[in-house]
Every structure is written in structure tokens, then in C-alpha cells.
Amino acid sequence: MADFTINANGFGSFYENVGNNGTDDTVTVNIGSGFSGTITVDSQPGDNEQDDTIVNLPDGWRLQVVNLSEDDSENPSFKDWSYEVLNADGQSVGTLSIRSNNIQGAPCFCAGTMIETPEGPVAVETLMPGDLVVTRDHGPQALRWIGGTRLSTHHLLRAPHLRPIRIRAGALGAGVPATDLLVSPQHRVLVRSTIAQRMFDAPEVLVAAKQLLMLDGIDIAADLDRVDYFHLLFDRHEVVISNGAETESLYAGPEALHSLGRVEMEEIFALAPALRDPGFRPQEARPLPSGRKARKLAMRHIQHQRPLVMANMH
Known about the structure:
Pfam families: Hint_2 (PF13403). This protein is mainly β. About 15% of the residues lie in helices and about 40% in strands.
């Protein structure tokens, strides 16, 4: 396994070529606040090679998908992605082109997670499109789409950043979650507190699990030898109840959609054609603090010895 890093923090063209070398590769792209120009990751994996790409952005920056294609001539297949790089003011400062087997990961639940439905808790892997799921804001809602991804032992060894986060029972607040909860690192959980109110002028926010690792009872699940992830999509971004904790459904923004395969994306676009527009941003169920602000929120809860979920904030 080989690791490569692109540090793009100035004007210019940044390039890395990897793959077809008999081993698995990981390319980490660190985009700095001074970046402008072009970045190209040209990954050419041979059969049975896995090349992963991780992109780190400054707070407030985002990637806007311009084009996607997928080539299944290799095993595994790879994706060609073209992005505009937008700074915190929404201005385009450059482009990013990636050819890779895998690019980050979408927010998702692990198999075995119990999702609240009108008939009671149901294991996420047994849900089907059309099934009703209890949502915090809109009552029972029909599930529009469910997707699944299996990561093997070999894949988790190659891409440890995709290992799930385990949130122990009671780690978020009194009885929240009711039992241990496993989610992907990008999956957001609901934080409800006076601290969130002061920081974001909103009593509730959704924070990625990986930003809460400094808290007791929230850790990387390093003991798992494989994981099955599931994505739940509704007509809108929703807050659902998983193992007794309030968490998000799939937020179909470009950052999440870019990690899905071509077939999965086409299925979602057929259900929600507006998502084809790279400038379209779905309505967020709650504010989504950036990574730096989310970590600051977690630290303040530690400093003030306050739970992430306060029972009397409804």
C-alpha cells in the first residue's frame, strides 16, 4: 500500500499519478485557503487494485460536481469526477479532477441499526422503498430509496478513514442512544443544547460523528472486520430515530452524492431530477456546522460538562 499527498495552498497546477503498480494506493488532497488553479489526481488502478482519494477542504469551502463518468472495464470500476472548487464566499477558485475507485464516503447507517417506524423499531437492512419511517419534523414518511455498501476487511485496512464510529449507549445524553449506535464517520447526529443555541443561534444542529471523537463514549470501531453501510433517502432531508438517537437521513448534497456509484446516482436523479443541477442545494433539516465549528462545539460541551442532547430543549 502506498500513500500520496497533494498539498495545494497556492496558485498553480497540482498533479499526482498513481495506480497499476500491483498495490493499493491512497491519495490525500489537502486544499489550503490560498489555493487557486487546477488539481488532478490520475489514478489508474489495475485489476483487483483499490485506489482511494481523500479530499480535505478549508472550513466553509465546498466542491461542486461538474461531471461524472464511470468505467467498469477494470475490477473494481473507477470514477472520473470533475469539480469546481468554491471558497467560503461561493467563488470558484479552481478545478479538481479525480479518477479513483473511491472518494470519501456518504453518511450512512451500519447494518443492525434499529430505525423507528410506526410499527416499532426495524433493522435498517430490512427496510424497503415505500416503507414508512418516523421522522422528527414530518411524522411518518415513505422511504424513497435505500442504498447499501459492503466494506470488507481488506477494504477497511486500505481505507481506515471509512471505519464506522461507535457511539456508546448514553454517550450523547441520558439514555441517548438507548443502545450502542454505529454510523459512518460523515453521518450527522443531532445535538440539542444551550451551547448550540449560543454558538449557532439554533437550539439544534447536526454534527458529523467524526467531529465528536474527543468525547467519552464515542470512538472509531476498530474491532470490526467488515461493515455494511446503508443510506436512507426521503423526499427531504429528515431527522430519524436510530437506536433511540436522533440522526440524519441521507443529505443529497454534492459532497454525499459524489461517493455513490453511477447506478445509484441515476436512481436518485430519477426520483429527484432537481439534484442533477450542480448548483442545487437541498434544504437542510437543521444547521450543519463546519468541521472546525463542530469540534469547537464538542470541546465546549466537555469544558462545561454538558450533554450533547439536553432533554428539556424541545
